[in-house]
Design a protein that fits this description.
With 434 residues, this protein is mainly α. It has one domain: Hydantoin permease (Orthogonal Bundle), CATH 1.10.4160. 78% of the residues lie in helices and 0% in strands. It is built from 18 helices and no strands. The chain has helices at residues 2-7, 10-22, 26-54, 58-69, 77-108, 117-128, 131-151, 155-179, 185-193, 202-215, 222-227, 236-264, 275-285, 290-324, 328-348, 363-390, 393-400, 405-430. α3 crosses α4 (58-69), α3 packs across α18 (405-430) and α5 (77-108) crosses α15. The longest helix is centred in the last third of the chain and has 35 residues, at 290-324. It starts with a helix and ends with a helix.
Length: 434
């Protein structure tokens, strides 16, 4: 449940719907599901396995396992790359988390009551175009995150996740139920689940794969950290499958709730990062008890973002503690300060720096592309090679402890051949080599 809490967050409810809208809907969804099944689950199993075998931070785990496998210590780059990716992602994740904080206030004060699609768009645009507001809410979210990290993730928060994640799931079902009353529910389902391959491009495939990695928290050290706490008797395969299924189900429910509202209110599916903040207020603004349910929804979304953000920064903080003998407070302060300052770039991407483009993209778009579409897949390739080719079969068979012989053989084929080749092809296409 803790790992599911780390995986389920803004990536499912904020990012998945807007990427689906930008890339034409159903064909993108199909590629995403295939990536989760064929790449995400085997690679999550590999990360959990490496984490449980090493029982340390990702960098130190790879150092130990490289020595055990008698290969170069250069494989530590997997840990360094993932740790850096986590900090970079948190720098913009925190800005979006700040939006969630602000929308709790908007909802609680009745701002969404009777709001139209145009009104919701105008409200969001006015909000993000205020740089002071962006920095303020970003700062508030980072303080919340680093407060918990500095104290250590206490059992209270971990136990709360067991109740808050099902509550978020329940509220998504309420939103889906509301979406069925819009008159556009079938159009939303068609957009999501009737493949139109004319909308599919190499960029769409790369983005779908990157989203699978992002949503499942792969390649950033988070899952490896959780793996280090997994008891010996726990089935890595069943745990990985249950996390991936829960994660994917939340993303699909978010799409089923959002797109009927988009079509019913004449909104643009390709609205981008603002999509959820322009659609959900419309639903709650016209729903009986919308003030209560809207506030509760954004509050639970905040918790989902919060648990994920703690997981993103934890590998970096733990690395400073283990390798540089820092206190947890000092390590959290340094990591938090660097990440907070980097977040200014994302906060300004929607206002002061909106016209500043590098490679045709804003600071936020570049950071998102670098982490989700390049760093995480690159780390995934290295993890697949290390787990499939360098770790001995006896070690992986013992750690995974898959009862069925064919189950282990299938994992080995996927992790040795399918995952590295598929990810490499898409990654090379992204950088223009193919």
């Amino acid at each position: 449940m803790a790992a599911t809490g780390a995986a389920v967050g803004l990536g499912n409810i904020w990012k998945f719907p807007y990427l689906t809208g930008e890339h034409g809907g159903s064909a993108f969804v199909l590629v995403y599901i295939v990536c989760v099944a064929a790449l995400g689950i085997p690679m999550m199993m590999a990360e959990v396995m490496l984490g449980r075998r090493g029982r340390q931070t990702p960098v130190n785990t790879l150092r130990t396992l490289a020595a055990e496998a008698k290969v170069s210590q250069g494989w530590q780059v997997i840990g360094w790359c993932g740790t850096l990716a986590g900090m970079l992602i948190l720098s913009y994740y925190s800005v979006i988390g700040g939006w969630t904080l602000a929308y709790i206030l908007y909802s609680a004060t009745g701002t969404f009551s009777g709001i139209t699609g145009e009104g919701a768009s105008a409200l969001f645009n006015q909000f993000v175009q205020n740089p002071a507001a962006q920095i303020g809410w970003h700062t508030a979210f980072m303080i919340m995150t680093m407060y918990i990290v500095a104290r250590g993730v206490q059992s209270g928060l971990e136990k709360a996740v067991q109740y808050l994640m099902p509550a978020l799931f329940g509220l998504l079902l309420v939103l889906v139920a509301y979406a069925t009353t819009t008159g556009y529910f079938w159009q939303g389902l068609t957009f999501l689940f009737t493949p139109d391959f004319s909308q599919l491009s190499g960029t769409s495939m790369l983005t779908a794969m990157g989203q699978a990695f992002f949503s499942l928290s792969l390649g950033m050290g988070t899952i490896m950290i959780y793996g280090s706490y997994v008891p010996k008797g726990t089935s890595i395969a069943s745990t990985s499958v249950s996390i991936a299924l829960s994660d994917t189900l939340v993303a699909l429910l978010a799409g089923m709730a959002i797109f009927p509202i988009v079509f019913a209110n004449g909104l643009e599916p390709r609205a981008g990062p603002s999509l959820i903040f322009e659609t959900i207020p419309v639903a709650f603004g016209h729903m009986t008890g919308g003030l209560l349910f809207g506030t509760l929804f954004f509050l639970l979304l905040l918790v989902a973002a919060w648990t994920s953000s703690i997981s993103l920064i934890e590998p970096a903080v733990t690395l400073l503690i283990e390798n540089y003998r820092m206190t947890r407070l000092r390590a959290a302060w340094w990591c938090g300060m660097v990440t907070w300052l980097l977040g200014f770039g994302t906060a300004f991407s929607f206002n002061l720096w909106a016209q500043v483009r590098v490679f045709g993209m804003t600071f936020f778009d570049n950071l998102d592309f670098l982490t989700s579409n390049l760093m995480l897949p690159f780390g995934g390739i290295l993890i697949a090679i290390f787990a499939g080719w360098l770790l001995s079969p006896d070690t992986s068979r013992t750690e995974l402890n898959i009862a069925s012989p064919w189950g282990y053989s299938l994992w080995r084929v996927l992790i040795r051949y399918v995952a590295p080749v598929a990810v490499s092809v898409v990654l090379l296409h992204a950088i223009g080599v193919l």
